[in-house]
Amino acid sequence: MLRISRIAAAFAVVVMLAAGAAGTLPAQKKVSLFAIGGYYIASDLWAGVGANTNNKVVLDDSPTFGGRLVFMSQPRFGVELNYMRAVSNLHTTNPAKPLEGNVSLDQIDISGLYAGYNGTGRGYLSLGLGTTAFTPHIQGVNGSSQWRFAWNVGVGFMADVGKSMIARVDGRYRGTTTNRQTGSSSYCDAFGNCYGYASMVYSSGEVTAGLGFRF
Fold first, then answer.
1. With CB atoms 3.0 to 4.6 Å apart as the test, which of 13, 68, 117, 158 could cross-link to 168 if both were Cys?
2. Is residue 6 part of a domain?
3. Per-residue confidence at 176, pLDDT binned at 50, 70, 90?
4. 116 inside domain
5. Is 140 left (phi over 0), alpha (psi -120 to 50) or beta?
6. What is the pLDDT of residues 9-25, one digit of tens each?
7. How far apart are alpha carbons 148 and 171 in whole angstroms?
8. Range of 66's domain?
9. Nearest to 111 by CA among 34, 203, 213, 28
10. What are the helix (H) ranges across the chain?
11. Do the domain assignments include residue 122?
């Protein structure tokens, strides 16, 4: 009985020491700040209507850069504040009505992140809401910014680089509402009934990579 008591006492001391050691370990770092750069994939900003049907306003692909602040409240769930900027060249498709210049696109979003199992590397999905500002830089055109409602969906991968650094790659689709027609399509069924669809959503994408500091 005495031996069992000693073993029990020794076990209790070990548990207490382990608990104390665990309490001195640093808490898991939940906040990360990233510098981001990559490639912006543009589309038609708006399509001509009526007499200007053949005159589309087109944005070119361009580099993009920005930053992201991530707070992982749990190992698999987090919130991200995102800012990205791109400057795309702008032109029209009708040479009789030329329009040249560029447009700055400032994108601010807040997104939810769902990550895979925690480890040195993990994939994640993102879904967010925000706004996109279009600021034209064209001679004879009002250069004031126009902020529009936007949403995005993305997929990416993060990997630890040492104790405090973290790298990531990311691909996203973003839709932005506009007050102009950005495209249209039509469909006729076997019975001769035809249907049309016009979109006022500007679509864009981005492929980015970045390096962040966890604190």
1. 158
2. no
3. very high
4. yes
5. left
6. 544 443 444 444 434 33
7. 21
8. 30-214
9. 34
10. 2-23
11. yes
